[in-house]
Description:
Layout: H1 2-14, H2 16-25, H3 29-44, H4 50-126, H5 133-138, H6 145-156, H7 160-168, H8 181-185, H9 188-199, H10 208-235, H11 238-250, H12 252-255, H13 265-284, H14 290-310, H15 314-330, H16 336-356, H17 361-364, H18 367-381, H19 390-418, H20 422-434, H21 443-449, H22 459-467, H23 470-493, H24 513-529, H25 536-552, H26 554-564, H27 571-600, H28 611-623, E1 629-631, H29 634-644, E2 647-648, H30 657-666, H31 675-684, E3 689-693, H32 694-697, H33 708-716, E4 719-722, E5 725-728, H34 735-738, H35 746-749, E6 750-755, E7 759-764
Parallel strand pairs: 1-2, 1-3
Antiparallel strand pairs: 3-7, 4-5, 6-7
Amino acid sequence: MTELRCRKSDTLEGDNEEEEEKHQTDPELDTKDGVCCHIWAGVDETSVSRGAADENLQQREENEVKDDEPEQEESSTPQSAVRASRSLSASGFLQRLVRVFFGCLAAVACGMLYAVYLSTYHDRKFWFSTRQELEREITFQEGSGLYYYYYKHMLAAPSFERGFYELTIDNKTVSGQTINAVERLSLYPELITSFVYRITGSQDFVEPVYFYVGAVFGLQAVYVTALFVCSWVMSGTWVAGMLAVAWYVINRPDTTKVDQALPLRDNWALPYFSCQVAALTGFLSNNISSATEMFCYLTMSATTFTFLLVWEYSHYVLFVQGLCLFLLDSFDLVPPRKMADIHKVYLSSLFLAYLFQFQNAALLSSPLLSLLIGSVLARYFQQKMKMGPLVARVMKLFLHFHLVFTTGITFSYLVKKLIPVSESDFILKFLEVKFGLNTTTDFVTNFLLCQESLQTPGQDLFLRLTQASVLPFYLLVLSVCLLSTLQTIYRRLSGQPMKTNHRLEDGRIGEQPEVIYHVFHTLFFGGLALLFDGLKYLWTPYVCMFTAFGVCSPGLWMTVFRWLKLKSIHPVVLSLILSTAVPTIIGFSLWREYCPRVLAELSDLPEFYDPDTVELISWIRSQTPVAAVFAGSPHLLGTIKLCSGAAVTSLPLYSDIDLLRRTEDTYQVYAMRSAEDVYKLLTSQKTTYVIIEESICHELALNKVCGIKNLLDISNGHVVYDKGEIYSFSKHRRFCNEIKLKYSPYTNYFTRVFWNRSYHVYKVNSVISFQY
């Protein structure tokens, strides 16, 4: 019996793992073994002494105790693991919550401080709080006061509905025309602001002008907050957001036009675009929950529609963004489901904007809609485009590009044939002249080419960005991300799958869809900014954001170290150190050098005062009839319309070809034209008073081609430039100089009624006197 017992114990000891598996699979084994032991013990009692039986019983008890110990340990191990995982998840959630709280607090604080800074800067620059109402309104420069006039009109109307109706049939702005001012001037910002001012009862505690200015500054706070969030989402640390805001504020002359003219459409629209880009960045990210993705989707939908609603050029900006997303989809860098959702956002926003803008034909012929139509049709016909070997996929890709752009161009051509859009042909002619493919003597085309925003930026732009240290780091970050993106594109075309869960050790910053989008975004808008100076306001803010993300991202440094095959120091540790140390050093240097300069801007400000314009407006208010019509330069006419409400012959709106043609007729007072010709042009626009500005009549343009007088002479054929030589062919002298001499025939058509150092106002005689 002892021998059998020993063999059984050896078997248990030798096959311990097998027994454990049997215990797990067959729970009846323990019961059977117990029964056998009891039977065997009964047989032993008749032939074995009591001492041996006691010894056997003691040994069995010890074995049972030993067998019970692993079971207790196995039952306690899962419970301890569950408790540990729960404690770790709770602590991780708490840490994430704390980081998000402080990040949101920092984002809101940056936005609010920037808004306060802008408000203080504006007040001290224009002495806004100490001025009278007329002097405050004159501070709206570059003709932007026209938009504020409609805001005042909405508040003066007996009801919001009545004011809105009057703006849709406005016959008191442009002489001889009835226009829909809401559609033509994109007045939804003024409509919304006036509506909020009414329903909140703000008239009891804040003046209308302060409410309007405060709304603009509030949107600028939203602007920098969105840039903060965008950089934070991409890098994973809100330090990147603070660095992005710092660079944005330091480079303010190149990032925003809010210092120049508050009511411009750019200042209302670009904050919404910034929010849309931030929401799109989160939506493209792979590491987000379904609830966060839905929030980003809804935010993107609302901001895209609002952006289209408040700016007439917004669909061109979204077209460039659509090209970036089109490349992501073509290279299979983003899930098709997300691209389908983005297409829905674009199409629904275009449809709603088309309805809210009174069936605006420009949206139907927009390149954005053409791109969407071409992309949707191409995806339907090329469902297997993203399959096959490398060479086949490249060939399919070229075919896809050809199909998309051919379909889009055809659709745009058909729409323009069915719904004629006058601006489309002019834009093509303008681009031909801009890129040197053609020449023209047309005044409007050359006038637009001479606008600073449409000229090529100078070297001072890149010098300022370099001095602020943003450009060197931008080129470094862009180079790394672009090379990593190209590697990712090659892998995708070769058929390799794209990772969705990225680890820091991988060192592949270019596999993140949101990073790839911003690489394309900054390349496209950067290329446009090199052609048109005004588009730098769409590029430099995202240069600041993108650069801040790069220097603060451990993934970017890890990508560089993977390329260098760094082995002396652990690359993960070094990337974490550099992603903290580099932005800290940059931030400290920026604080030391630029913080005193930014604060000094609030104290060392020259006083802005224009007494000649104040005198002119005061005379118009007191000495001219209500039905008077004024002709002059567009910027001056915008101020006159704001301060007096009088009708004008043209408006400072450079997107309207008809208004630009009327401006050309008004500018003939500075050309070498006869008194009779000028009189006929002015009376055709029902002009009562014409204003001649000394600054234009005696301007000394650094660029001879871009002076108003020179543009008129070229357009009228009075001056010809040939190999550096100037030839004049006009038989009349310059009108603005000759009319001041007060001799016939000028006195027959015009009578001077007001003058000061800057302005001469002449009444257009309704009855012509032929006295010589």
